[in-house]
Each structure stands twice: as structure tokens, then as C-alpha cells.
Specification:
Number of helices: 10
Helix content: 25-40%
CATH architecture of one domain: 3-Layer(aba) Sandwich
Order of helices and strands: EEEHEEHEHHHEHEHEEHHH
Distance between the termini: 62 Å
Radius of gyration: 20 Å
Number of strands: 10
């Protein structure tokens, strides 16, 4: 359903994706893990054509999306739902209007059918009573859930999730996990999930891939990732400060000497 073939991308001459290869099968949920800034969100944006690779190809359902015309790319995007990390809601629209937007733009549904679908989607993400609220009136977690309701409104074949449980309490996070699994099991939706939440990753994933230094350094089932002998994988999944991954971490010698000071 999704293929990345030798995909490379750099910003200011700094490689973010370096000859990445990945295949996602129909109705599979694959979870991408890795440190912040490792290129996980960049990978998702390549899949829906918001970014173009400097080398390599991105295929969605067999179509090279970088070779498509604007209209052809729109036809592919309609079949994809995207939950952005920050939700990316329209500030000037209510929660109801945000979820209704793709239905009004891309379908011929009448008003009653749109209302029913919006209510159904908001109910699925645990927000049945936010119709008239604007994004500024919602908490970060609520905005994320409205974004998810919008992402699934058109009944997509593919859903891309960028940190779906970040900013959400653990109980609602598990509800979102169950929804991801239900979409796969009941509707055969193909999913890619970017997350730092290993509990969520282990629950929803058919396979987990770790991105590090622009490359996928490990891929396998949740059990295979748990048992991986790769020290980079083990440091990340166990959340340890000590290990081969050191860039961006504070010098532990400074930490050992540091003590808070009081200022009058």
C-alpha cells in the first residue's frame, strides 16, 4: 500500500532521511519510533506529497505520487487521513465545522448526512459535546482528538498518525489506540503511526521500525523489537540516558556537579 524506495531528504545540507526503504502492506499498522528530530514526521509528509524527496520514490497504492498532476495527487490524498502532531485545525471554524470541512469539500452528502457523520466521528474520539467550540476553547488533547475525527471523516483507506497520544491522558490515549486497531480490524485501514509512546506502539503495531540518523536501523514485530540486541534500539525503548545515543543529551559530569542556587 505504501512504499518508500531509497528516499533521501536534507535541510540545510543536514540529511534527515538517508536512502530510507520501507514497505507497508495493506491493512497493516506500522509504528515509526525514534528521537525527536529524527525525521519521522518528515516521512509522513512525503507520503501525502507535502514534501518531495531529493532522491528516491514514494509510492502509494502503486502510484509514484511525485509524478502525479495536482488533480491526481488530490485523488490520492482523499483516500488518506492525516492526524498532524499539532492537530492543524482551522482556528476560525468550530470543532463541528473542522470535521465537516472535508465532507463538504469532497462529497455530495446532504446537510443531514454530514451532521450525522460528524457526530459519529466526534463520538468515536470521546467528544460528543464540543460542536460549537473553537480550537482556542479546547485543550491540546481535545484539539488532537478533533483532528483525528476530521482525519477519519471520509472513511480513508490509509491513515497517518503523528503522535496520536501526545497530550492526551492515559485513559483517552488507550481509547485512541483501540480506535486505531478497530479501523484496521473492521475496515482494513492501512496505518502509519509516529510515536514516542512505547506502550501505544506495542499495543497497536503489527510491526515497529526505528529511525535513527536518517535510516531505519531495526524493523520487526513488537516482540522482535523488545528482544532486539541493537543497543540503540534498547536504549530508546527502555528510555535510558546512558547508551550509544548521546547527541543532544547534557554532559553527565555537569549534572553530577550541579546543584540549585537560591537567589534573594
Amino acid at each position: 500500500m505504501i512504499e518508500l524506495k531509497d528516499v533521501s531528504k536534507a535541510f540545510d545540507d543536514k540529511p534527515v532521511l538517508d536512502h530510507v526503504n520501507l514497505t507497508v502492506k495493506p491493512a497493516e499498522t506500522i509504528v515509526i519510533i525514534g528521537r525527536s528530530g529524527s525525521g519521522k514526521s518528515v516521512m509522513l509528509k512525503h507520503i501525502i506529497g507535502l514534501m518531495k524527496p531529493e532522491a528516491g520514490r514514494v509510492l502509494v497504492n502503486g502510484k509514484d505520487i511525485n509524478a502525479l498532476s495536482g488533480r491526481e495527487l488530490d485523488a490520492v490524498r482523499i483516500k488518506c487521513g492525516m492526524l498532524f502532531q499539532s492537530a492543524a485545525l482551522f482556528d476560525s471554524m468550530t470543532a463541528f465545522e473542522n470535521v465537516a470541512f472535508p465532507l463538504r469539500e469532497h462529497t455530495a452528502m446532504n446537510r443531514e448526512a454530514v451532521e450525522q457523520r460528524v457526530h459519529e466521528c466526534l463520538q468515536l474520539v470521546g467528544l460528543p459535546n464540543v460542536n460549537e467550540l473553537y480550537p482556542s476553547e479546547l485543550s491540546g488533547g481535545m484539539r488532537k482528538r478533533v483532528g483525528l475525527a476530521r482525519a477519519i471523516a471520509l472513511g480513508p483507506e490509509i491513515v497517518l498518525y503523528d503522535e496520536p497520544t501526545t497530550g492526551i491522558d492515559p485513559i483517552m490515549g488507550d481509547v485512541i489506540n483501540d480506535l486505531i486497531m478497530a479501523l484496521r480490524d473492521n475496515l482494513k485501514v492501512t496505518s502509519m503511526v509516529v510515536t514516542h509512546d512505547m506502550r501505544s506502539a506495542y499495543k497497536v503495531a503489527d510491526r515497529i521500525a526505528m529511525l535513527y540518523n536518517g535510516a531505519i536501523i531495526a524493523i520487526g514485530t513488537p516482540d522482535e523489537i523488545r528482544r532486539s540486541d541493537n543497543p540503540y534500539v534498547q536504549q530508546f525503548i527502555e528510555g535510558k540516558a546512558i547508551g550509544p545515543i548521546q547527541e543532544g543529551l547534557p554532559d553527565r559530569r555537569i549534572l553530577s556537579r550541579w546543584s540549585p542556587r537560591r537567589f534573594n
